[in-house]
Specification:
alpha/beta, Dihydrofolate Reductase, subunit A, 183 residues, 5 helices, globular
Length: 183
């Protein structure tokens, strides 16, 4: 998840125009994404992703990242946490409208690769609160927003993470990869 130096994932109105991206970041993130076979989204992020990625690889000027991520997006199982999208029927897409924490706990105990969360700060806050996040991949952007949507909500308990790797990109973005000890 992209985050500002002062801990925000979006501006007060959801703005993300401050996020730095570059080819090296896409290549780095692609390795992580390919280790996942389930993508978990909140409604807003899902709608944003689904408006672009299903056909991104088919566009005439599609870059390598668009082709790779577009193909992955079309193959991955998508779980959407939403009360308003009940009844959505799309291939490889499941909407969870009730008891989403219990449903995510079931997903985590199933077979398969990893579950990855894209954006979706409200959903992410609840996952953190209930101790369901095993790894953090934070792309820290060298900008102070002053206000906005925080990366972390108010947790119920202290959780300890250990640094696995810090990777610096030419733009000044640093990816911090943490995991919970003993996972």
């Amino acid at each position: 998840m992209h985050v500002s130096l002062d801990g925000f994932v979006a501006g007060p109105k959801g703005e993300m125009d401050w996020i730095s991206v570059e080819d090296a970041m896409f290549a780095y993130a692609t390795k992580r994404i390919e280790e996942s076979d389930v993508a978990l989204y909140g409604r807003v992020t899902y709608e944003m992703m689904d408006a672009y990625w299903p056909t991104a690889a088919d566009q005439p000027n599609a870059g390598r990242h668009d082709v790779q991520h577009g193909n992955w997006y079309n193959q991955v199982e998508k779980i959407v946490i939403s009360k308003s999208l009940k009844g959505l029927s799309k291939p490889k897409t499941k909407v969870i409208s009730e008891n989403f924490i219990t449903e995510v706990e079931k997903l985590k105990t199933g077979n398969g690769k990893d579950i990855i969360v894209f954006g979706s700060p409200s959903t992410y806050h609840q996952l953190i609160e209930f101790g369901l996040v095993d790894e953090l991949w934070m792309f820290v952007n060298p900008v102070l927003l002053g206000e906005g949507i925080p990366m972390f909500g108010k947790g119920k308990s202290r959780q300890k993470f250990g640094l696995i790797e810090a990777t610096t990109f030419a733009s000044g973005v640093v990816c911090l990869h943490y995991n919970k000890p003993n996972i």
